[in-house]
Each structure stands twice: as structure tokens, then as C-alpha cells.
């Protein structure tokens, strides 16, 4: 598609709305309750579902449909979504016909248990490559993003997109990363 928005434009457009859903997720976490498990899921981690998953996906779907009505979109909760039918497709397309994917609460079980090591992850893919990703860690007030061929960046959710800085990882021995949390 020649009129397809760039991955940078997609991420920049969604970023303010993702900051809002991150604040929402953080605010309601102490009150959240599990919904009935997803059908036919044997793994407790992939079966978990909350109001936050559905609400976050719904908001991002609305923003995408309002700004990029021709885009492809696959949200983890597509089976429960009222908006899936309005997207052109939920699968990979050809080059520059991007598929935006969303995991509204990556680590739902941890989220339900009150832990801070959950993220909101949005990816942009095309038929043959990764184009971009934005991962938000609400409990750490941090976001990370990468654009294909342009490096990875990080910033504070209290700042703006333009305030992000190149991500620097200084490896340490005996460090294990689980989500955004570090355990020694």
C-alpha cells in the first residue's frame, strides 16, 4: 500500500494514548479481578484475562481506526473485541502493509497478583520483517521503543516522545531480567 503510514508515525500517534492506558492500568491494578479464563487455554499465564486487557485493547483499536482506518490490526483479545470486524485484516500483509499487534497486558497473571512486572506491548510488522515496537512498563513509569534500523530508545512516561534517549545496556554478571524488573 503506497499510502501506508510509517512505523514512526504509528508509534508517535499512539504514544499519548498508550500513556493514558498505562496510567489506567496502574490505577485500577489494586482493584482488578480476573474475568473468566479464555476458552481452551491450558496454561494459566495465557488463559488470564482482565477488564484492563479488554479496555486497553478497545482504546487502542478506537485510536487506530480513527487515525489509520486501513491498517491491519491483531490484538491478543481479538475474539472478545467488538472492533475486530472493522479492521481490514488481522494477518500479515505485504511490504509496507503493516500489521499492528497489541498485547494489552503482557503478564496478566502477574498483573492480577499485584506485581509490577507487566507491560503493554505494541508491535508493527510487515510480511518479512519487524518494523517497530513500543513496550510500556507502567509500574516503572518507563517506555522502550525500537524502529527497524534506527536503534532502541527509552524514556519516562512523565516525559514526551522527543525526550527519549538511546537505550544503553551495561551487562552484569548474575543479572536476570524478568520483564522490566531486575533480579540479582
Short summary of the structure?
The protein is an alpha+beta fold and 184 residues long. The chain has a single domain, classed as Fructose-1,6-Bisphosphatase, subunit A, domain 1 (Fructose-1,6-Bisphosphatase, Chain A, domain 1).
Give average pLDDT, whole number. 88
DSSP summary: helix tally: 4
Helix content: 25-40%
How would you classify the helix and strand content by structural class?
alpha+beta
- State the shape: globular
Number of domains: 1
CATH topology annotation? Fructose-1,6-Bisphosphatase, Chain A, domain 1
Summarize the helices and strands and which ones pair or pack.
Elements: H1 7-28, H2 44-47, H3 51-67, E1 72-75, E2 99-106, H4 108-112, E3 119-126, E4 129-137, E5 142-147, E6 152-156, E7 165-166, E8 176-178, E9 181-183
Parallel strand pairs: 1-2
Antiparallel strand pairs: 2-3, 3-4, 4-5, 5-6, 6-7, 8-9
